[in-house]
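Morning run. Coffee first, then this:
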Amino acid sequence: MLIDTIYSCCLNACRTFQKEREHFTALSAFLLALSREYGRIAKRHGLRPFGKTLHLRLRHSEIKLYLRTEASDYSVFRQIFIENEYAPLDDLTSVATIVDCGANVGYSSLYFLNRFPQAHLIAIEPDPGNALLCEQNLRPYGNRATVIKGAIWPQKARLAIVRGEYRDGGEWATQVQPLVTPSGSTMVVEGFDMPDILEMLKGPAIDILKIDIERSEIALFGSDTKAWLSRVRNIAIELHDDECRRVFQEALSSYNFGVQHSGELTIIRNLQAASNVATPVLSQQKRDL
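And here it is:
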């Protein structure tokens, strides 16, 4: 029985290694395969989790990243670097400023910083553990990348962090909400508004605004956006349900743009204010890019 278990584990690890070898260097693929297989065994037999953070390098790339083996990091990595959800933005030119709202552990920021090597980026992440890893991932980029431990919000505010309640409860599903009655166990984070972020950028516009903020897009786009939305050129946003889509449509109702869908993302390109738009533009048949 033990021999069969060991054989099965080795076989599964070899299969995982071959799969990950497509995306990582040999050593990184080996470490990832070993840790993922141990994670499956530990879960099955009630063993202590591996609980390590791996430093991995992508194959055919200079990108190095930190990945937690017992978190949702690999799922985020897969969306960005394997499924290439942000590829529809790859052909943009003259990208100088990027804002990553809901940066998680920084993988989308890594993607943008390498795709647009002249750009400066601000990454905003409310979850303390995610933000710490995001800082580690973006440190090699020096003053090109700034990490803000906070949340994007319609106005400056103190917000409560909510973990484990939305979607699968993983690290990539952390939410924020207005702080009502704080208690000793409440994790509090600062909320920053978009004019704050624009001031930090010290630029005339945001060339790429990436938003994945677990339904907080309702608060962000449901409030007055006149002070900042006209200064955004392109948007990559995950809209989490029908209410999110409705609010976003209404906020963009006086703009013209191109729209495309990529995985879970809605990509808005060439956002421009329009004087004669009668209905929310996302409800019309816009051109696909």
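Residues 12 and 212 are 33 Å apart (CA to CA). Good start to the day.
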